[in-house]
Amino acid sequence: MSSSGGGGNSPFAWLGLLKWSLAHQDGTRPSSDVAPMSEEDRKFLESVMKDGIVDEGERMKTILTELTESLETIRDSVPGETESNGGEQKRKELSEDEISDLLLELRDIVEQIDYARAFTAMGGLPFLIGCASENKAVPRTVRSECLGVLATLCQNNPPVQQALIEMGHIRALSNIYFGEYPKEDDAGGDADESDGMVRTRVIQALSCSVRGHAAAEELLSNDDDGRRSIESGLGMHTDAETLPKPPLKLRKRCMFLLRALVTSDTATEERVELFAPSIRYAAAAFLDIALEPDAELREMSLELLAEVLRRKKGVNVVVDLKGPLGVLGVQRVLAIKALEGEEREYASVELEGWEGLLVELAKIRVTDTNKDSSAEPQNPPDSSSSDKPMLLLGGP
Length: 396
Fold this sequence. Notes:
By secondary structure, this protein is mostly helical. Among the domains are: 1-125, no CATH class; 269-375 and 384-396, no CATH class. It is 62% helix and 0% strand. It is built from 21 helices and no strands. The chain has helices at 13-23, 39-50, 54-76, 96-110, 113-121, 124-133, 140-154, 158-167, 169-178, 197-210, 214-221, 224-234, 248-262, 269-274, 276-285, 295-311, 316-319, 322-337, 341-346, 348-363, 366-373. Helix 2 packs across helix 5, helix 9 (169-178) runs antiparallel to helix 10 and helix 12 (224-234) packs across helix 13. The longest helix has 23 residues, at 54-76. The termini are far apart.
């Protein structure tokens, strides 16, 4: 089968789209299946490339050209994906490390908001997501770097975040995440995802693409696959799933995103309830030092619970755990206060977190919980599921 890379059913369509955009910056109309660049985007792209910032803009175009040429050699190595173009000059073939270095340089360039917009206008978003999705042909490090560039592009950049929403990026990134579960057959090879590298970058990209954008936060919160990605990254697996514990970096990324969503200025009681299983799981798995040795993750979990109480939205999710939280909290406060020297200083943030949470629990009034009870779902989480807080009662 021959593929042009820009249409049909080719999984490498994202590569052809970028190649076309690089070749048609003058506004030439593309084929019918590719949206034309608007006049506004064309003028903006030209101004970014020419008016006073030529060097960086030209370098970005050069990087993308070299990436497309090298990735085309990868595409052509896949059976059925070779492009029939015998007259084309030999493409520049880069090593995996060289491709990664180019993506790192690209990431540095698009940290500037104008270049991020220019990259988006060139059709770069489908390229990054498409490349990150090719888990059978594109090396894992390259896919990870593509996700890193994507995260940098959209962070605190509403126009880019909006462009991603219109692409349906939450579903696309969730699919990448769930396609990366570590498998025994992959151990030690390029596809070995036991370190969670790609999954961690997926969560980072999701986080950067929604934080600060009210509509995007709401879309992710209401997306089943999006919530499942966060739950999975935290380690919420059923007894039937024989999956390893997620790497620490992945759990921290998911905890950061969870906290951002439920404590956002636009968060509602309904949103907190949607994430109730994740909040309960964090309380059960990440607060007890006997279960979670990482101090930063314990501190993040304490701040999450305290902030939910401070905002008085969905407080029942935390208040329902008041008894076991109080017992564990008092025990941990006494244990930290008994420490001396550097150990005491190292645990000072956790101590403040526990004291703050206990104060917030004590301040909760009956009227707060009664008001919040109307937001409880008709089908509360099964007490036998993996999000139950029973671990709080356990101990060494």
